[in-house]
Amino acid sequence: MVLNSLSGRFLLLTIIFVMLAEVLIFVPSVARFREDFLLSRLERAQIASLALLATDEMIGPELEAELLENAGVYNVVLRRDQARELVLSSPIPEPISESHDLRDAGPPRLVADALNRLADPTPRIIRVIGEPVREGGQLIEVTMNTAPLRAAMIEYGLRILLLSAVISVLTALLLFLAVQRLLVLPIKRVVRAMQVYSEAPEDNRRIIVPRASVRELHEAETTLQSLQTELTAALRQKERLAQLGSAVAKISHDLRNILSTAQLFADRMEGSEDPTVKRAAPKLVGSISRAVNLCETTLAFGRVQEPPPRLERVAVAAIVAEALEAEQLAAADSEIEFVQEVPAGLILRADPEQLYRVLSNLMRNARQAIAAQGQPGRIVIRADEDENTWTIEVSDTGPGLPPKAREHLFQPFQGGTRKGGTGLGLAISAELVRGHGGRLDLVRTGAEGTVFAIRLPKGATLVAAVPAQ
User: Fold this and answer.
1) Can you tell me the distance from the alpha carbon of 381 to that of 393, in angstroms, rounded to the nearest whole number?
2) Which positions are tagged coiled coil (predicted)?
3) N or C: which end of the chain has fewer CB within 10 A?
4) Domains within the chain, CATH numbers bracketed
5) Total-model pTM
6) Distance of CA 178 to the CA centre of its chain
7) Cα–Cα distances in angstroms (integers) from residue 411 to residues 95, 309, 469, in the given order
């Protein structure tokens, strides 16, 4: 329906408002018409009385009746030279019901009298008093019937209403066309652009180009363009991530099989009599086992979830020492000092493999940040506890996180802490800690270094796996 559209409703409202404006004009117009009608009757009556005076009042009853009929009144009274004189007269069919003095009637009074006359259909005899024209005396007074007055007022009102209706329709039509051109068509264009974009949001060619000349519509188109651009980029990013996840899952699957073979050979090396091999074999077996476990968890990550942690009581110092030893080997050519400030007897409930991954990721990021600036540095791992929480802090003396990393912290492929980094380490670490019911926080970062804190609740029970970000 037309009324369900913006332009149709605007057309209807325009007609209503224009008609309302015309009604507000109609009332004073009818009041003005009534006043002019009565003044014309007074003027006719004065002309008739002057005709009588010009003949020295020597006219017959028939001529007097004709003069009164032409004037539309029953009698005429003139006040001249301080004397009140009945100049023309005829029988009045009924008593005078009311008098109207036009000499001092203001607009409110004229409007009220006009509305009363329109509302009263009964013919009445009224007295009308006014001032003679051309100084024809001090006062003129006539009596007349209201029926002709009301009929003339109704005819005039109908003409005004008809004219108002024509004006309102024409005005509404012009405004309708203007709204169609200036508002409705641009809005339809925006809606069409949204529909076209929704069919293939990854296609850059379907992003709207702002063209509206109206400022508000232009701002809306500009905002929509920005939103579509960001959405297209996000969809492409997600598509690339999906493809990357599929590729990583395939690589992890084959790599796990290769590492399983290497693990068999490492197991056999443990039986060697060579002292050096005996010392290296357990560490090699542990590293290969972690690599196999990482491949398995990567496959789980590709299924959009990390495996739930297997909580057990673990000594923090042992896990920290193992992660530190691996990073010390990687930092053999750098002047980086590793400090462990973990109480030997501190025990917490966690998955040892997942906790090792978190600590390894944090220490690796710290080592790479210090090595990138080419200066000596220090990495400190602290741990303590209170009544409710175990806390492990990893701090470094590196250059601090770049702004982009702080803005997209813990987001895969966006929160990388170094050039060329993917940000997966922090994202996976945060997810693993959330799986324990805890949280990974950035305590502070800046030119003096960076501090991350792992907070694990003491009252936590086994937590369901958290969906990957």
Assistant:
1) 6
2) 217-244
3) N
4) 2-173 (no CATH), 306-457 (3.30.565.10)
5) 0.43
6) 26
7) 99, 21, 7
